Amino acid sequence: MALLVAIAAGGTAGTQAADFRDGALLAAKDLAANTATLTVFDTGGQPTAASTHAAEAIAAGTKLIIGPTAQSEVTAVDAAVAGRLPIFALVSNSGPRPKGVFAFLSDESDSAIQVSSYAVARGKKRILAIAPPGYRAAHGDRLSRGLAGAGAELVDLIEYGGGGDVLDKAKPQIAQSDAILIMALPTSPAAIIAAAKATGALSTEAIFLGTTGWSKRLYQNSALSGVYIAAPDQHAMQEISDRFNKAYGRPISLDAACAYDAMALAAGIVRTKGSQGLKPATLQGTSGFRGSTGLFRFQSNGSVERLFPIYQLADKQLKLVEAAPAGF
To answer: How far is CA 257 from the centre of its chain?
Structure first.
C-alpha cells in the first residue's frame, strides 16, 4: 500500500497530513502483520509531486493508494493511476470522484444530514439551517437533497458571518422551524442559540442541532447543553485512542482515525481475499465495513456513507442518546 500525504505543506495541512500518516501507520502495525506493507510518500501539497509518487508506487507494485488529501492532487493521482488500482482518497464527498476513486472522509454536511434525520424521527421536520458565508454555493444542494431524503423540510439556509441583525430579520423562518441546525461558524453557536431565542419567535418545543464541524472546545460551553450532534462512534474510537496516544504522544483525531480505517480495511481485505480482493466489487459491498469510526460503506459513485450515533451535549461532553444502526 502507498500513502500520499502533504507532510511538507506545513501549517494546518501539514498537521492534518501527520495525523493521516500516523493513523495509517498504527493500523499497519496493528493489523497488517505480514500481509501488507505501507510506504509513505510526501507530496508537499503539490499535484505534480503526488502524480510522480503515485507512478513510483505503482512501479514498486502497490495495489492500493491511500490519499492524497486535496482535490487537485486527487485529480493528478487519478490520471497517473489510470484505473489500474483503487484510490482511497482522504477527501470528503463534496468533490468529484472519477471511477475507482473512493472518498474516505465524511464532512460536516454528512453529519448535518444525519442529525436532521434524527430530528425528523422525533417529529421535528421543519429545519432552519444557519451556515457560514459561501456554504450555499459549495454545499447547499447536497444539504437540501439530504434533508429531503430524510423527510425534512429545509425552511431556509441562512448564511451568517457574525454580527448584524440577520436572525432578527429571520423571525418568520424561525417561527416556522421545529429545529435549528447550526453549522461551524465564525461565531460561537451559543450566540446563535441566544439570538434565536431572543427573537421571541422560536417555539419552546424546538431543538438545536450541531455538527462535527464544531470544535470540541465548544463542548465546554454549558450554554450548548441539550444540542444534538451526529458524530463518529466515540466508543469505537476509544478502542484505538490509547494506543495512538502512547505511540505518538497526542490524542487521536478524526482524521487519524479515518486513515487508520483506510489502512485497516485494505489490510483486512488482503488478509482474507488476497490483493486481488482490492477491487470495486469488494469495496462496494452493500453490508459495508466496521472501523474505529463506526460502520461505513461506499456507494457506486465512490462516495462514503457512514452510520453515526446521535449524541447530546450534557455536562460539557457528548452523551449517547441513540446508537448507530447495527447495519445498512
So the answer is: 11
Q: Give the CA count within 13 Å in the CB-facing half-sphere of 318.
A: 23
The dihedral sign for the CA sequence 314, 316, 320, 322:
positive
State residue 239's pLDDT score. Answer: 84
Domain 2-106+235-306: give its CATH architecture: 3-Layer(aba) Sandwich (3.40)
pTM (2 d.p.) = 0.88
Which architecture does CATH list for 108-230? 3-Layer(aba) Sandwich (3.40)
Per-residue pLDDT averaged across 263-283, rounded? 91
Give the pLDDT band of residue 327 (cuts 50, 70, 90): confident
What beta strand segments (E) does 75-221 contain?
87-92, 101-105, 126-131, 153-159, 179-182, 207-210
Cβ–Cβ < 8 Å for 229, 111:
yes
Q: Which of 298, 116, 146 lies closest to 207, judged by CA? A: 116
Where does CATH 3.40.50.2300 sit in the chain? Answer: 2-106+235-306, 108-230
Cα–Cα distance measured from residue 164 to residue 185, given in angstroms and rounded to the nearest whole number? 14
Residue with cell 457512514: 306
- pLDDT one-digit tens code per residue, 220-233: 999 999 999 999 88
Q: What letter represents residue 94's amino acid?
A: S
